[in-house]
Amino acid sequence: MALVLSEEQVMLKDSAAGFLAEKATVAHLRALRDGGSERGFDDAVWKEMAAMGWIGRAIPEAFGGLGYGYTGLGLVLEQAGRHLSLSPLQSTVLVGATLISELGSQAQQEQLLPAIAAGEKIISLALQEGRHHAPESVAATATADGGDWLLDGSKVLVLDAHVADSFVLIARSAGQPGDTAGLSAFVVDADSEGLAVERRSMVDSRNAGALTLQGVRVPGSSLLGTAGDAWAGLARALDIANIGIAAELLGLSCEAFERTVGYLQERKQFGQVIGSFQGLQHRAAELFAELELARSIVLQALQAIDDGEEDLALVASAAKAKLCEVVQRATNEGIQMHGGIGMTDEHEIGFFIKR
């Protein structure tokens, strides 16, 4: 496959870069954080994203989207990473809509996806239960009760939990924690009786929350797919999510690198700019090479989703591993090369390492 962008994709990338540079920057993140925003993001900006078609980018046209695939969505996520833009793009579009597409019936997709594409519905995955990401270790239970299901358990690290309209909740209808068989997915409305949502703020000021479910009754129609058979669709959706997050981390890494290089060209010590010091030049050059590798693997992974490649899990793992390594290096180098000012909240470089 050719690891180059089409003319249309370049236009989308430039459009996203321009819009987010104006409407959803690190400065906006700081203002939302310091102002104690109840929503945690700007609803007006979210509606504009919907109007531009970003939310429906990877949703099929039959369900109100544009059907342009995940490569386009990845380009938007990359720019969101550059600006640390706060929005439900990750929770609702990358993860929520993908899960519904992978697991939902035709009727369920017709009901939910158009509302997501229009920016009218925020939906988030409720999966994790402990400190570590272990999807097969779900212990929350789903018990059949007539034509309904009763859900019990707890979830943590649910993105945008306190503003979500619904959750795709993963619960165990059979088997034991650790089994991939027996997992089921349900669409649970946020106002369901017996469901408690606690808002928690992450270190980077993004929305997250914890859910507690005590005898939450949902109708049989809320079950996505077949009871006990959610694993295959969940695993693929998580692979896609990891690739999307890798795209976001690529943008974050590139922005941190470019800001750091800009600082090296301005800051003076001993009568000369510190960017003239060979030791710092070598570190910057090595990081530049790593970023180019990261850019290639992210684009390859995004194209693998759209091309329906069978080894998607392998490509997703490679992209995840590489970008986690590169983003850690890029943000750490950013702090170190900025020196003492990089440790202060007043300087924006610190926001990148927090994300």
Number of continuous helical runs: 10
User: How far apart lie the N and C ends?
Assistant: 32 Å
Number of distinct beta strands: 10
Mean residue pLDDT: 95
| Strand ordering within the main sheet | 1-4-5-8
Structural class from helices and strands?
Answer: alpha+beta
Q: For the report, how would you describe the main beta sheet?
A: 4 strands, mixed
- Helical proportion, percent range: 40-55%
Q: What is the global morphology?
A: globular
The sequence of SSEs as H and E is HHHHHHEEEEEEEEHEEHHH
**Spans of at least 5 consecutive residues with low confidence:** none
Radius of gyration: 21 Å
Range of strand content: 15-25%
What does this structure look like?
There is one protein chain. This protein is of the alpha+beta class. It has helices at residues 7-23, 26-34, 43-51, 70-83, 89-103, 106-117, 231-264, 278-306, 312-338, 349-354; strands at 123-126, 141-145, 148-159, 166-172, 183-189, 195-201, 207-219, 223-224, 268-269, 272-273. It has a four-stranded mixed β-sheet with strand order 1-4-5-8, covered by helices on one side. The radius of gyration is 21 Å and the shape is globular. The protein starts with 6 loop residues before the first helix and ends with a helix. The mean pLDDT is 95.
